[in-house]
From TrEMBL:
Belongs to the GST superfamily. It comes from Achromobacter marplatensis. Residues 1-81 form the GST N-terminal domain. It comes from the Bacteria. This is Glutathione S-transferase. Residues 84-208 form the GST C-terminal domain.
Length: 208
């Protein structure tokens, strides 16, 4: 049995919930109240080394980090979501974009809109005085422009005819762009890609 340790407002958790729905896998869902610091326990650390959500247990195996979870699920249950050669390099590159460019732009920018600046600073590991919201906005525009260019030339991020785990990884926070006060219509290819994902069989929207 798969068990997902989850928070309903987390974009990283949403990636995993969405992928599980798309591949038709049933799972148990365990709520972890990160805002109340319920993740900061020795028990949860045995599941998630950095005490972060999402985390997944698959039998006796524990996997943490949303991208590691997506790859685990694809390798074990849905290999059709893994881009073939020669597109596998592009798939991994866009997984890296999700883990780096998005994680340092749209993800923290959205956080400052859905929780207090003090709470956002705590989760980002900085003092409130060091929250660089204009910098987050500039980095968000930069990555969305690059993604828009890619998607203007390709239906899916890996350059394949069908979506891959890279699309789900990047969609997690792109789906929540409006919560960061981003006008997604300024990036029409990204907007069209988001709609393509919403039309996939089994799609579930963000939220509880």
């Amino acid at each position: 049995m798969l068990t997902l340790y989850d928070h309903p407002r987390s974009g990283n958790c949403y990636k995993v919930r969405l992928f599980l729905a798309l591949i038709g896998k049933t799972y148990q869902r365990t709520f972890v109240d990160v805002l109340a610091r319920k993740n900061q326990t020795a028990e949860f650390e045995r599941v998630s080394a950095f005490q972060q959500v999402p985390a997944l247990t698959d039998g006796a195996t524990a996997i943490w980090d949303s991208h590691a979870i997506l790859l685990h699920l694809a390798h074990h249950y849905a290999p059709e979501w893994l881009a073939p050669l020669p597109s596998i390099g592009a798939m991994h590159a866009w997984l890296s974009v999700s883990a780096n460019e998005i994680a340092n732009s749209l993800q923290p920018l959205r956080l400052t809109h859905v929780v207090s600046n003090a709470e956002a600073a705590h989760h980002l590991g900085v003092s409130e005085a060091l929250l660089d919201i204009p910098g987050m906005q500039a980095r968000t525009d930069r990555f969305l422009c690059r993604m828009n260019k890619r998607l203007a030339e390709n239906r899916w991020l890996a350059g394949t005819d069908v979506p891959s785990v890279a699309d789900i990884a990047c969609y997690g926070y792109a789906a929540l762009a409006e919560e960061a006060a981003i006008d997604i219509t300024a990036y029409p290819a990204v907007a069209a890609w988001r709609e393509r994902i919403r039309q996939l069989p089994g799609y579930v929207p963000p939220g509880p």
